[in-house]
Design a protein that fits this description.
two-stranded antiparallel sheet, two-stranded parallel sheet, 320 residues, Cytochrome Bc1 Complex, Chain D, domain 2, mainly alpha, repeat, 13 helices
């Protein structure tokens, strides 16, 4: 927050507190020249207005609220750039990467910490309480955990918290995000590979036209050939011509028969599973513009024990 904006915020907060106090004092004074309990001369529908002071309980609550507000704003951040006397913050909001986050989290731990970071304290408490549970599960194989209903529930909750934003709460993915339930794996669906994918992330990249000397006029025929690989409706004559374009080098990644290559993360073009859509337009777009997809590495975000549990849940989705 800029200094000017901070000053404006502080001024507004102080003005509200001071105005509230002044209003309370003003309301305590009789400005009507009437005795307490005397009629104010206003009668409506049989109800007469009487000159009565503010109820004591209301006034006391007003005072308590103002005093609480002053104390809270003095102890906690809330007035511009003022950090509060307790030097408390809900989270390390200024960090730019995981390394800075780790350093800030360590600085917030222990009795000698100079800043009370609520989030970091809660994470430390959670790790101390639940860390042994995760460690016990991590000692078991992913295949065994996939059969453990309680472990699957924990893995599912971790998945929903961290993975569902891309893959969906049902893990069925969406355009550009793999369906984890269909058994079609770009890099392999065995337990070890799934964990490796989660731990280190993946960077999938296909350059425009595969980086090959494929002319624009060849693309429609190549699309027909790609569609033919999964027995989709296609123009047979165009597909024959498109096979020649495919053999210019597409096979190097996708295989001679379009079966893909899990070592490279090259999709299987024969199984009918389309990450970016299987329409003619979508296939042409993939060929012309290429595709680039990134899944982040989770080992430094969640730690291996939690990744192990998520891996067991993901593995169970296509192996139940």
């Amino acid at each position: 927050m800029s200094t000017i904006l901070s000053i404006i915020v502080i001024f507004c907060v102080v003005a509200v507190l001071a105005g509230s106090w002044a209003l309370l004092i003003w309301c305590q004074k009789d400005k009507m020249g009437k005795e307490e309990g005397e009629s104010m001369g206003h009668v409506f529908d049989g109800i007469e207005e009487i000159n009565n002071p503010l109820p004591k309980w209301w006034s006391y609550m007003f005072v308590i609220t103002i005093v609480f507000g002053v104390g809270y704003l003095a102890l906690y951040p809330g007035m511009g750039n003022f950090a509060g006397l307790l030097n408390w913050t809900s989270a390390n909001k200024q960090v730019l990467n995981l390394e800075e986050s780790r350093v800030a989290a360590e600085a917030a731990k222990g009795d000698g910490a100079t800043m009370l970071v609520q989030y970091d304290r809660e994470v430390a408490q959670a790790d101390a309480q639940f860390g042994p549970i995760f460690a016990a599960y991590a000692a078991q194989s992913i295949e065994d955990l996939a059969l453990d209903e309680e472990a699957k529930k924990i893995g599912q909750r971790l998945f929903l918290q961290n993975c569902s934003q891309c893959h969906g709460s049902d893990a069925k993915g969406g355009k550009g995000f793999p369906d984890l339930t269909d058994g079609a794996w770009m890099y392999g669906g065995d337990a070890a590979t799934i964990k490796l994918t989660l731990m280190n992330g993946r960077n999938g990249f296909m350059p425009p036209k595969g980086g090959l000397p494929i002319a624009d006029e060849e693309v429609p025929d190549l699309v027909e050939y790609v569609l033919s690989l999964s027995n989709r409706d296609h123009d047979k004559e165009a597909a024959v011509r498109g096979q020649g374009s495919y053999m210019k080098g597409c096979f190097a990644c996708h295989g001679m028969g379009g079966e893909g290559n899990q070592l490279l993360g090259a999709p299987n073009l024969k199984d009918g599973n389309w990450l970016y859509g299987g329409s003619r337009g979508a296939v042409a777009e993939s060929i012309i513009n290429g595709r680039s997809g990134v899944m982040p590495a989770w080992k430094d975000i969640l730690g291996e024990d939690k990744v192990h549990l998520i891996s067991s849940y993901v593995y169970s989705l296509s192996n139940d």
